[in-house]
Amino acid sequence: MEGGAPPTHDLLAFALPDDQATPVDDFLEGHPRYKQIRFLNRGAYGFVILALDNQSEEQVALKFIKRGPQHITKYVDREIANHMRLRHPHIIALHEVFLTKTHLVLAMEYAAGGDLFRYVSARRGLPEDEARWFFQQLMVAVDYCHRMGVTSRDIKLENTLLDGGQWPLIKLADFGFSKDPKQQSEAKTRVGTPAYLAPEVIAAQPGKSYDAQKVDIWSCGVLLYVMVIGRYPFGMPSDAELDPMRRLSRMMERTMRAEFSFPADKPLSDGVKDLISRILVQDPALRPSRHEIQAHAWFMQGLEPGALNFNDAIVQESLANQPTAEMLAEVHSIVEEALQEVASLPGVGQPQISKSDQLQTNHSGDDDGAPHLMMASEELGYLTSGTLP
């Protein structure tokens, strides 16, 4: 979505400066196409580095997932297959997949503006006009994904990247928990990030499915709340004295009841409060559809005529140019090969990063074998206390 006159503001660059980049081994040594530049980020899946594509002379983000059955799951295969189907200006492009001696690598479009989490955190929340500019783009991206049959199940600020332009355009990223019920199966498992989980995901029972599109809608509502308020809706500052697991429990209890409020000291329009209140409801059947959100008066403000039809031609083109069976088979073969655990080369390991950058994953209690309730090691504290760092 290119339309609308976005608010004027100073864009902060959130990429690590070269002199602050975390030192890592050269995982691309001798690669014929890519040259490593610097470390970007790390998650439960592995890590991401910035590299130069010698063919296109453009910078790309390379996502490294360690080889072996402990790291390469069916979710990796699904992530790649679903991501390959999505080609959209508001979705990070997946260029190719390849193997190194130690890792499976996803070569993706690089978003120079960092992620929306850092952007919002630096401002302790955004003015409504700016939040609306991002939210309009997010809903265009979600509309496209859902029309393509793909649900994210992990929409959050950290997975919403910025292109680095003067008026930032968002790029939805990370389809590690994505689902396409026509290609895979119905959504049943408890996956996602605690602060963004919908009540029905927390309460998910083995063998019982939920509407993953309505789960994405819930996460979009949480994201909008955080943008305009500067904290998470179901974490309260009053919980700060509790131990981390108790704070998490309190947050989950409020989420299950859809119990949140708008701070009295935060001036907000009735429009944005109405939209958030319509989205963050316990019963998914009562949540608005993406079309109803796009028709909401607050959402429509400043929207360029024709923006709601932005996806029509893109969806048609995408459906006409889906990955072939041969392409999917080749990717599946690469993933199968990545399942074979390869011993780390002497002197080569994971990038050395601070504990605050690490993600921890709980692998228990999931009927589909999925790692669930992912959170950063420091995230448990701030998301349950209600404030951004």
TrEMBL record:
Pfam families: Pkinase (PF00069). GO terms for molecular function: ATP binding; protein serine/threonine kinase activity. The keyword Transferase applies. Keywords: ATP-binding, Kinase, Nucleotide-binding, Serine/threonine-protein kinase, Transferase. The active site is at residue 154. Residues 348-372 are annotated as: Disordered. It comes from the Eukaryota. InterPro entries: Aur-like, Kinase-like_dom_sf, Prot_kinase_dom. CDD domains: STKc_AMPK-like. Residues 34-299 form the Protein kinase domain. This is Protein kinase domain-containing protein. It comes from Chlorella vulgaris (Green alga). The lineage of its organism: Eukaryota, Viridiplantae, Chlorophyta, core chlorophytes, Trebouxiophyceae.
